[in-house]
Structures are given as structure tokens and as C-alpha cells.
């Protein structure tokens, strides 16, 4: 109904046409930057591991995903308002399989470089109010637009049913990666629900736990679950700067974060970090450690991602669909790259924000596997030595001082030397000024003008 109303709103249609033209005219908006040759060496081993802690990209035969509209690919190519109800599932960062790696960067398209026979990925598109979650080409992408954490246990049931009944994958023998990302709708709409306790951090994590329990207790074998920390929706408010279209659509997509009252803003400040921490604690527990062929790994790259900005410090809306909330094709590509890179960063040393302007990480000979909490110790120690990071618990390890520029470098030996040089220069300058001051006192009448001018020129040059 909301889209129907906007479709006959002349002002909105006019503004939307201008806004979408501005976005879609950018050369990398549809799919992100084009990619040339795949950067990683492709090695295959016929010895398939029995432990999830030795799982390599070439071992993965099947992908799936549960979540909401950000996994369904809603609105990624919405050139008109009608496109806002179209789910571009083939572009989905975690489970889309349209085109190839060179055109669409997604987890399945990277994995297909290692295993062309990969199964489970979604293709093409679906429409929310028609087939949505059950479209023919959805594969194991069972995400549903509008769903919240309380819907996830049902999605887990649908996912397992498709694996078993539709035989999209071999239940017993195929190694599977399932990406689980939910929470945005809980945070975006908590203020509109009369049942306030429905979206508390404790209630949120209980739904996530129930979902993971279903997967674990169903003894779905050979499975690694990527558990993605929820986006910090508080940044949505800054996206209102996109103008009339953004503000209008935010009233429906994320009202509690886009237009919060002071009390709602305070609640979000409390909820968001707790949503993150409780998932970290859940994954760090021993709850899912009883089997060697199943594990849950938190991938935190969404949690502290800041809104990308251009060189002029204005928001770069090219990462977003025209509704200024969901991802564009470029945004999906960036999320895919960041998830992949997180997978090859040790637990406790993972990046908490998008890997913007970074290259795809490649498995190495020493660490050819996807990192889990049981195989990360050595790599984490090396990472900490290289970055001078203190030793921290993997359940709470997270960067605390990231900025919108996304990169922060530690001081090197050359930085220290430069600081010492600055001290020497400053000391010398102070001594020179002191000498000049003495000269001024003793010979003020003869050289006042000269000293004043020379001193000013020297200070300006410094």
C-alpha cells in the first residue's frame, strides 16, 4: 500500500526520477568496480577434511543464507519506485550467483572460482508480495524482506527442508556455508511495537540462539555458520541528507533510527552494542563445540562500518539503493568482499568495518582454511605481534577507535625518529629565539627592525 501511494504521488515520482538518475548514472553503481583476473591461487586437494576447522574454499559444495531484505537483495536495482519491492537475489552479497566473479562480486561467485559445481546460491529476482521467499530461483536463500529475529527459527526449518526435500545439496556429504544476518528490522522498528520487550538485546539473542540450536541439533553435518553482527542503524539518520526521497522512505524502512526521539536514541545507544556483545558471547561459548563438523563464527565487518564518504567528505550514496537504506549492487559487492576477508582473518583479529579500497584476501599455504576459534591461535598471535595489539579474549575482541576513514596505522620506528627530530628542531628554535631576545634587549635601538623581520620570516618557514 505504501508503494502504491507513492506511485501516484507526483512530487515523489519527480524527485525519485532525479535521484535514481543521479545514482544510476555512476559507472560502478550497478555492480561495483569491474574485476580482472582472480587474485588467488587455485589449489585443489582430493582429500576432503572431516573437521570444519580445516575447511578450505575448494571443499565447499553448497551455500545458503537466512536473514532479511539485506540478504534478499531488496531494491538493489530499483530504477523506479516499483523496483523497491523487487528482491535482486542474484546480486546478494552472501548468497547471490548471478553472472560471474568478474562482473558480480559475491561469496558464491568467489567460491565458484574454486569449485564451479557449487550449489545453493540464488539467481535472478523475486517480488515481495508475489513469490518472495519461495521464488523458483531462490536456491537456499530463504531470507525474507521485513523479517525480524523472531522469524529466524522458521527460516532455519525452511532451509533444512530445502536441503533435504528438494535435494539442493547433499545433506550428509557436502560441506556447507550458511550466512546468518538479522537484527536491522528489530532495531529499526522497536519504537513502533507496543511490546517493548520484544526487541531487547536479551530477546534478540534468544531468537538467534534458538535458530542456531535448530541447525545444530538437527545434526545437519558439515556446516560452518557465518554469524554476521548487525549494522549500527544509528547511522541511518545521517542518510536523511540525501533529501526528500530518502526521508520519505526512511519513515517506512527505519523510522526508529532515522527519526528517533531523545529517549529512542538513548535506547539505541544501549541496544546496539548489546546486540553485538551477546552474539559474541554466544559464539564464544561451548554451546556449539560438541561436534567437529559444525561451528559458528562471528564475522563483525558490519558492526562498526561508517557511512562511506567521498573525497569532499559528503556521503557516498553510490553504496545504497535509491531508498537510502538497502544496498546497491556496489554495496552488495563491498559487503561480499568484506565478508570474504573476515573469513580469512583470525578470530580475535577480525576487522569490524568494511574493507573499502582493499583487495580480496587469499588463503595462504600456512593458513589455507577459513578461520574458526579453534584454528586461529597461531595466526592471532602473529597478527597481534605485527600490530602491537594486546592479547584479548576472542569473545570481546573488537577495535575501539575506528574512524570514518576505516584505516588506522600503528606508529613505526620511522614515526618515532621523526618525533625526536621535531623535538630537536623545536629546542633549537627556542634557543634561537632566546638569543634574539637577548640581542633585542642589548641592542634594541640599532637592530629592532631587522630582528623582528628575520624572526617572523623564520617562524613562518617553520
UniProtKB/TrEMBL annotation:
The keyword Cell membrane applies. InterPro entries: GDSL (IPR001087), Phospholipase_B (IPR035547), PLB1 (IPR038885), SGNH_hydro_sf (IPR036514). Keywords: Cell membrane, Glycoprotein, Hydrolase, Lipid metabolism, Membrane, Repeat, Signal, Transmembrane, Transmembrane helix. The chain crosses the membrane at residues 421-441. It is a single-pass type I membrane protein. Residues 403-412 have a biased composition (Basic residues). One of its GO terms (molecular function) is phospholipase A2 activity. This is Phospholipase B1, membrane-associated. It comes from Rotaria magnacalcarata. The lineage of its organism: Eukaryota, Metazoa, Spiralia, Gnathifera, Rotifera.
Amino acid at each position: 500500500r505504501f508503494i502504491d501511494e507513492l506511485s501516484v504521488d507526483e512530487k515523489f515520482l519527480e524527485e525519485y526520477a532525479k535521484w535514481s538518475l543521479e545514482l544510476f548514472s555512476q559507472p560502478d553503481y550497478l555492480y561495483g568496480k569491474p574485476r580482472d583476473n582472480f587474485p588467488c591461487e587455485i589449489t585443489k586437494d582430493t582429500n576432503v577434511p572431516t573437521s570444519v576447522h580445516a575447511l578450505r574454499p575448494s571443499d565447499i559444495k553448497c551455500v545458503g543464507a537466512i536473514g532479511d531484505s539485506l540478504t534478499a537483495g531488496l531494491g538493489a536495482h530499483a530504477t523506479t519506485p516499483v523496483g523497491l519491492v523487487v528482491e535482486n537475489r542474484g546480486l546478494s552479497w552472501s548468497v547471490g550467483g548471478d553472472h560471474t566473479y568478474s562482473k558480480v562480486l559475491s561469496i558464491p561467485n568467489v567460491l565458484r572460482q574454486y569449485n564451479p559445481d557449487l550449489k545453493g546460491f540464488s539467481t535472478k529476482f523475486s517480488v515481495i508480495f508475489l513469490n518472495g521467499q519461495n521464488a523458483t530461483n531462490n536456491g537456499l536463500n530463504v531470507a525474507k524482506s521485513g523479517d525480524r529475529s523472531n522469524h529466524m527459527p522458521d527460516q532455519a526449518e525452511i532451509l533444512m527442508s530445502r536441503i533435504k526435500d528438494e535435494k539442493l545439496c547433499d545433506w550428509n556429504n557436502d560441506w556447507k556455508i550458511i550466512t546468518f544476518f538479522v537484527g536491522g528490522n528489530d532495531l529499526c522498528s522497536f519504537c513502533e511495537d507496543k511490546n517493548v520487550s520484544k526487541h531487547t538485546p536479551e530477546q534478540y539473542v534468544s531468537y538467534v540462539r534458538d535458530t542456531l540450536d535448530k541447525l545444530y541439533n538437527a545434526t545437519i553435518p558439515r556446516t560452518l555458520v557465518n554469524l554476521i553482527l548487525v549494522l549500527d542503524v544509528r547511522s541511518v539518520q545521517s542518510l536523511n541528507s540525501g533529501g526528500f526521497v530518502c526521508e520519505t522512505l526512511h519513515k517506512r524502512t527505519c523510522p526508529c533510527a532515522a527519526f528517533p526521539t531523545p529517549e529512542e536514541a538513548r535506547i539505541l545507544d544501549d541496544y546496539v552494542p548489546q546486540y553485538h556483545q551477546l552474539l559474541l558471547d554466544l559464539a564464544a561459548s561451548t554451546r556449539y563445540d560438541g561436534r567437529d563438523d559444525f561451528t559458528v563464527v562471528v564475522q563483525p565487518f558490519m558492526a562498526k562500518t561508517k557511512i562511506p564518504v567521498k573525497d569532499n567528505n559528503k556521503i557516498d550514496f553510490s553504496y545504497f539503493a535509491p531508498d537510502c537504506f538497502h544496498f546497491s549492487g556496489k554495496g552488495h559487492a563491498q559487503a561480499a568482499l568484506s565478508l570474504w576477508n573476515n573469513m580469512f582473518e583470525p578470530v580475535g583479529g577480525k576487522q569490524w568495518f568494511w574493507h573499502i579500497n582493499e583487495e580480496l584476501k587469499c588463503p595462504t599455504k600456512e593458513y589455507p582454511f577459513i578461520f574458526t576459534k579453534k584454528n586461529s591461535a597461531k595466526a592471532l598471535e602473529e597478527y597481534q605481534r605485527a600490530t602491537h595489539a594486546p592479547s584479548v579474549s576472542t569473545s570481546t575482541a573488537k577495535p575501539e577507535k575506528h574512524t570514518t576513514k576505516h584505516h588506522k596505522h600503528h606508529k613505526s620506528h620511522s614515526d618515532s625518529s621523526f618525533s625526536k627530530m621535531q623535538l630537536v628542531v623545536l629546542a633549537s628554535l627556542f634557543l634561537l629565539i632566546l638569543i634574539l631576545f637577548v640581542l633585542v634587549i642589548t641592542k634594541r635601538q640599532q637592530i629592532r627592525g631587522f630582528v623582528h623581520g628575520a624572526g617572523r620570516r623564520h617562524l613562518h618557514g617553520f
